[in-house]
Amino acid sequence: MRDGDGSGESGAAERAAAAGEKVSALFRSARSRVRAGVERARASAANGVQVPAPEAPVAEAEAPAPEAPVVEPEAPVAEAPVAEAPVVEPEPLVEADPAAEQQAPVVVPDAPTAEPEPTHEPELEPAPTPVPDTVAEEAPTPAPAPVPRTAVLPPAVAPVPSDAPVVLAVEGLVKRYGSTVAVEDVDLEIRAGSFYGIVGPNGAGKTTTLSIATGLLRPDAGRVTILGADVWSGDAAEAARAKRSLGVLPDRLRLFDRLTGAQFLYYAATLRGLDGATARKRSADLARAFGLHDALGRLVSDYSVGMTKKVALAAAIIHSPRVLVLDEPFESVDPVSAATVTEILQRYVRGGGTVLLSSHSMDLVERICDSVAVIVDGHVLAEGSVDAVREGRSLQERFIELAGGSAATEGMEWLHSFSD
């Protein structure tokens, strides 16, 4: 019994061992075939040929499985994990599908189709800079707007009526200094209510004419009458009557500069026969009008040139004469004071007074005077209303033409050769 049992157990062990060997051989064979299949698949994938994955020989291995009785097959089963290799390794073959590799280049060419955009079209914008722009700039050149010169000229003051009485007349006036002729045959007529201007270059004879007209300088020949009274007749009473109607602002005036402004105006008023109260009131009015009210208590010697000119003009007006003779009344006077003086004189003329003045300011004479005389080298070259004298041009242009100012600048090419 014991021997029989031993032989039975040993036979079973042998069969189990044989079965295990067989199973191991099957697994080794399957593994080698799987590896061979994987190698073929990789080679085919490299050549672009798709090879089906090799089937695992699991079915053949299942047949001997029933022969394994209750014997402990756990040891050989431990080698079973080799079966996982055929399942995992074939998966990379699917990712290496050449169809996917062929589709990628088809998508890539689609991107360049979006490039035909007109990216260079904005360069056409600088092209619309046409040459006609230069033509547009030349347009203002042929437009001489100042052709109608009369439209640019300031409106002239209407002249006084020709039948207005003559308040100051100069006839055949002559004055010489040795061989130098200051004035020669000067004739002027200033009518009542006129704002009369005398213009001329320096040394033309303006101041000489006004000095003779006011009785300050004796002429060599000629006659001056003021309101019918002869200034140089030799009759002292007639001369005094003529001068009482005058207010004079002379050139190179000399004032009593050791007096205050208030004292000087009071003295000028009383010399003209005004009483003290009237003299003080008119002094205050004129000082306020000329902007001298704060300077009346100061000495005239402390006045500026412009202030001296204004206080002398106030002294010429203070007795309200019928005729004012003013030599350069606006010289050294600031624009604000000049505007005030102009307004005072215009009010004086509108009230029936007459003004005869000399000036170098053509614009001023053109703007406020109704009549003008142009004196050059002691001769009257033009005389009459402002419109008649300027002949459609500005008074300055006409004056330069008469005085020959444009010809005087010829022949001075040396101005272009500098000393250094």
Automatic annotation (TrEMBL):
Compartments it resides in: Cell membrane
Protein name, entry field: ABC-type multidrug transport system ATPase subunit
Membrane topology: Peripheral membrane protein
Classification via CDD domains: ABC_DR_subfamily_A (cd03230)
Domain of life the protein comes from: Bacteria
Compositional bias of kind Low complexity: 10-20, 51-77, 95-116
Pfam families found in the cross-reference section: ABC_tran
InterPro entries from the UniProt entry: AAA+_ATPase, ABC_transporter-like_ATP-bd, ABC_transporter_ATP-binding, P-loop_NTPase
Classification via SMART domains: AAA
Domain named ABC transporter: residues: 168-402
Organism (species): Frondihabitans australicus
Keyword Signal: no
Region of interest (Disordered), residue spans: 1-77, 95-144
UniProt-listed PROSITE patterns: ABC_TRANSPORTER_2
